[in-house]
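User: I'll paste a sequence; please echo it back and then give the predicted structure.

Assistant: Echoing your sequence first, then the prediction.
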Amino acid sequence: MSLYEHVFIARQDLSNAQAEGLIEHFGTVLADNGGKVVASEYWGVKTMAYKINKNRKGHYAFLRSDAPPAAVQEMERLMHLHEDVMRVLSVRVEAHEEGPSAPMQKRDDRDRGDRGDRGDRFDRRR
């Protein structure tokens, strides 16, 4: 089986419980087709960069799964047909990262080593 990460955006007028219910619903779709959800996260209501179907905000959800391609294809098909789901993105990955995803980490906990050594920024010559 292959490892996948899925992100979907649901309509903003859903309640938090309904949005989390969509995560469970699509997890059972994967399970019924021979896959399993390794982890799931509800990211909450976030403002989007542009309007989608006249909505400025949306409920974001994230799933990590271990499933055959046919199960992922069926889940995506049902997501596209569901009236509450506005966008879907599925990506096949080599391995799942440990711990929470980047949007769920606190800003102070994120690894700042990616930006490199800044040294004394104010002592630079101009």
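The chain has a mean pLDDT of 86. Helices lie at 16-32, 69-81.
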